[in-house]
Amino acid sequence: MQIRAASEADWPSIWPFLREIVRAGETYTYERDLSEEDARSMWMLPSPGRTVVAVEEDGTVLGTAKMNPNHMGGASHIASASFMVDAAHGGRGTGRALGEHVIDWAREQGYRAIQFNAVVETNSRAVALWQSLGFEIMTTLPEGFRHPTQGFVGLHIMYRRL
Amino acid sequence: MQIRAASEADWPSIWPFLREIVRAGETYTYERDLSEEDARSMWMLPSPGRTVVAVEEDGTVLGTAKMNPNHMGGASHIASASFMVDAAHGGRGTGRALGEHVIDWAREQGYRAIQFNAVVETNSRAVALWQSLGFEIMTTLPEGFRHPTQGFVGLHIMYRRL
After folding, report:
1. Does residue A31 contact residue A152 with C-beta atoms inside 8 Å?
2. What is the largest CA-CA distance in chain B?
3. Residue of A nearest to B73 (CA)
4. Of A127, B41, B117, B155, which has the fewest beta carbons less than 10 angstroms from its beta carbon?
5. How close, in Å, is residue B14 to chain A by CA atoms?
6. pTM of the shown model
7. So what's the ipTM on this one?
8. B21 touches chain A (CB under 8 A)
9. Beta-strand runs (E) in B17-135
10. Quick one: which H or E segment has residue B136?
11. Averaged over A150-161, what is the pLDDT?
12. Between the CA atoms of A67, A89, A160 and B23, what dihedral angle is there, to the nearest 10 degrees?
């Protein structure tokens, strides 16, 4: 698996699984009926943001991450990031590889911390993965997320100093 | 004091004290050299956001607040808000009146909570005001804000259920 900068040519490979994850509405605070155009501009970030893909040797896109400043001005040393992994290619450590990439990128860029603003508490695999990469649950907003089948659940804010 | 929807005609009254607060860089995570054009589009929100001014009987603008969804999709029931009060007219309860207005507005709009994403911990008057209005400090991001004279200080995330 290789992680490299995403280009516009990767979008047709990203959109099908990103759409599936967004449509499910279980793990991200995006509108479930997000259009392809809005999804592309939300995900394919210009500098100082960055979007990457994790690809197999044969070029198959396994997952993607975007990373960007979380705040402006006096808090611009805190980065943010989001991750999408194709369920058809799960269980290969793609999420972990993307997470490690983001941590390295943020450190190289001079960020002092990474903050995840909205990690749905029922997304327990993601929560455990981020914890294993050094992220802490700083707080959980009670009933912060309306899950399509589980009703109102907590929304974690996770943070890792670099 | 009256609180009413802000119109474009109010902007010339808002910009001088908003600029002063942003330039000081002590309380908000905006770029300190924010241009007037960027400030206007950031502050004067279209629906579903809302921007209000607190005005004296003679029409003097004392302060302003903007309110908007904090998240999208499954967390769109959480509102956010920001406040600016003209230091030349401080001590009149303008911040409190604006805060109460925002709470009423958010409740009427069907939000279930209000989340402040970035309250600088050294902004102790604001922290105390929000606490008196029922907001809790959910967590403090360590060294989350670079204060121009006090160095790295904490950044509170505050929350109030409605």
Report:
1. no
2. 44
3. A31
4. B41
5. 20
6. 0.95
7. 0.93
8. no
9. 50-55, 61-69, 78-85, 113-120
10. strand B136-147
11. 98
12. 20
Residue (of B105, B162, B122, B114) closest to B138 by Cα position: B114
At residue A85, what are phi and psi to the nearest 5 degrees? -120, 135
pLDDT digits (tens, 9 = 90+) for B8-67: 999 999 999 999 999 999 999 999 999 999 999 999 999 999 999 999 999 999 999 999
* Residues whose CB is less than 8 angstroms from the CB of residue B149 and which lie 6 or more positions away in sequence, other chains included: B26
Give the integer Cα–Cα distance in Å for B85 and B94: 7
The residue ranges of every structural domain in chain A are 2-161
Query: What integer best gives the mean pLDDT of chain B?
Result: 97
**B22: nearest CA in chain A?**
A73
- Assess contact for A79 and A113: CB atoms under 8 A: yes
Span B100-116, pLDDT tens digits: 999 999 999 999 999 99
Look at domain A2-161 and name its CATH class: alpha beta
Mutate to test the interface with A, among B33, B38, B78 (most CBs of A within 10 A): B78
Q: What is the mean pLDDT of chain A?
A: 97
Q: Name residues 33-72 of chain A within 8 A of B (Cβ).
A: 71-72
pLDDT for B91 equals 86
Q: By CA distance, what is B29's nearest residue in A?
A: A73
Query: Could you please report the per-residue DSSP string of A69-105?
Result: ESS-GGGTTEEEEEEEE-GGG-SSSHHHHHHHHHHHH
- Concatenate the DSSP letters of all residues of A10-70 into one string: GHHHHHHHHHHHHHHTSS--S-TT--HHHHHHHHSPPTTSEEEEEE-TT--EEEEEEEEES
Cα dihedral A66, A71, A74, A77, rounded to 10, equals -20
